[in-house]
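hey can u check if this looks right to u? its 302 residues, i copy pasted from the old doc so theres a chance i mangled smth
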Amino acid sequence: MFDVIVVGGGPAGLTAAVYARRANKSVLVLEKGTFGGQITHSPKVENLPGFTEISGNAFAERLVDQALAQGAEMEMCEVLKIEDGPVKRVFTDEGVFEGRTVILAAGATHRMLGLPGEERFVGEGISFCAVCDGAFYRGRRVAVIGGGNSALQEALLLSELAASVTVVQNLDFLTGEQKLQEQLAARANVTVILGTVVDGLLGEGTLTGLRLRREKDGALSEHAFDGVFVAIGLIPQNEPFAGLIDLDERGYAAAGEDCRTAREGVFVAGDCRQKRIRQVTTAAADGAVAALAACDYIDSLK
């Protein structure tokens, strides 16, 4: 049995593992996909403290090496459900693991457009975060897909860097706040295309543009872009925990900055919890907070 079982091997989960191990607690990290999480899709990261520049893969490898060096154990498997009790039983496709506490750090995945070949352009023209990747498109042409608050905020940030920003919204109106719409309308380098969807991706190894389809008549047009920022929502990976912890209407874990859930001995960290800012630094901060809270809980049982 482990003191702490961490579900998710991204920055939040791996930071939690490091902190728990430094508190001399036994730790198991379970990851169903790629250790390191979504940051592995970023070819260049420039907003991490201590690094002028590093690839997402290199950063993920360092996180993994650090957790292993501290003595954390890791397993590649998918968590199917968790049974509560004095001992938490974590059921996976590779067996059952038991722990005194559980830290849920499963993250959230970006909602994709669902187009053929989309995955191969992630990090090669398709991005999801203007704060992370916007500087790479300084003086270039970019598109933002989406019309809600997140998309409009991305477009505003990009408009300060890019030569031109084109917002593509499938509805005949933007759904973001009126204030954001007004700010966007005041930017001379921003164009908004309504009632239009992305019909195809152009380019071979690197994205070079989009094929757009107008909803009302099906008219197709091709547009050259150096980068595309997809902002059509996130999907928190909390479905296996729906019966264990409280989730909000969007599926995010109901937990505040203390990373504690209403379920005793269950903590949550990173993008899968309710929060406004989702960055690698805030995920790592959550991991530290959740791990220390779990350690305090374990110590209180003695």
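The mean pLDDT is 94.
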